[in-house]
Amino acid sequence: MKLKVFIYIVFMSLFISCKQEKEVYMFSTFREPADEGLYLAYSYDGYNWKNLGGSWLAPQVGKQKVMRDPSVVKGPDGIFHMVWTSSWQGDPGFGYASSNDLINWSEQKFIPVMEFDTSTVNVWAPELFYDHEKKEYIIIWASTIPYKFERGIEEERNNHRMYYTITKDFKTFSETKLYLDPGFSVIDAVIVKRGKDDYVLVLKDNTRPNRNLKVAFGKSPLGPWVDISKPFTGQFTEGPTVLKVGNEWLIYYDAYREKTYEAVKTTDFITFTDISGRVRFPEGHKHGTVFTVNESVLTKLIQLSRQSNETDDE
Asked: Residue 186: beta bridge partners?
């Protein structure tokens, strides 16, 4: 009898523990003019996003000290790593910080990935990707080095290409290398893993008059990327991030001229269905990345957010 009671207690403890570890979708975002820092939103279904407010981390690095395009990845050790655009122009790198709970953050660092070329105009929208097979982090971003690449009607200081570096610990980084030169100005790329040796790159064609989103395909997170598609969004769209819900992939993006946040869904990255009328985002929501957190992490964020709102109302 005692053994049965013991087994029951162990089973219930495991059940409760598993229940507490339910995962929730989290969206890292910002608010214009991006000088306040990190904002967060959460969702249980990928369609309805609720505001957690901000700022959860104020920017302290970079010449302009902004925090745009915050990209967050949860490592296998449970630590959240974040990189962001820290300046519009004039800085050879981006910001970095880490956290166990999205509340308490490490000291911010400036990672000077483009300091090898003093003519570099900008470092925009660094994006994190964790390669589970090689157990390392890939960081990609867009930079302009004038007169280095062919261009269309864009100005030399607006002719971007994608670059990358690799790190295992965010202390040492590999040599910066060219990541993508599709023959046109490209920014805001995000890596998606569909399966073994099967990857998709969602990117913004930043040429004039395009300024829309496309996809490319590869067998490695480092490419090479082939079969660049026709655009699947209209003009003046940027900042894609991707979330898999069931057997569908949701691609969220910023329609910046319309000042709206929109989305499409796809199962194959060939045919796309507009679902903008079905998704809901907090007012002022801007592009970042989607990742997952344990529900216990969300609970603490909600509690602090409510306390902050109550203090503001006093």
From this structure: 205
Answer left, alpha or beta for residue 5, where phi above 0 means left and psi between -120 and 50 means alpha: alpha
Total number of domains constituting the chain:
1
Structure tokens at 243: 């979330």
Asked, for residue 7, whether it belongs to a domain, the answer is no
* Spatial separation of the C-alpha atoms in residues 133 and 141, rounded to whole Å: 22
Nearest to 288 by CA among 162, 125, 56: 125
Query: Which tens digit of pLDDT belongs to each residue from 45-97?
Result: 999 999 999 999 999 999 999 999 999 999 999 999 999 999 999 999 999 99
Residue 256 lies in a domain: no
Measuring CA to CA, how many Å separate 71 from each of 85, 123, 183? Answer: 9, 14, 26
* Residue 302 vs residues 102, 123, 299: alpha-carbon distances, Å: 12, 33, 5
Q: Considering the chain, what is the average pLDDT of its residues?
A: 93
Q: How far is CA 164 from the centre of its chain?
A: 15
Distance CA 285, CA 70 (A): 12
| Residues 6+ away with beta carbon under 8 Å from 194 | 200, 269
Residue type, 100: N
One DSSP character per residue, 250-288 reads: EEEEEETTTTEEEEEEESSSSS-EE-TTT-B--TT----
Torsion of CA 124, 101, 307, 287, to 10 degrees: 20
Q: Does residue 98 lie in a domain region?
A: yes
Residue 77 exposed, middle or buried by CB count within 10 Å (0-12, 13-18, 19+): exposed
Beta strands at 186-195 and 198-205: parallel, antiparallel or unpaired: antiparallel
Residues spanned by the domain of 153 = 25-191+278-313
Name the pTM for this structure. Answer: 0.92
Residue 247 corresponds to which tokens in the numbers above? 């057997």
For the segment 191-211, what is each residue's pLDDT rounded down to a tens digit? 999 999 999 999 999 999 999
Please report whether residue 32 resides in a domain. yes
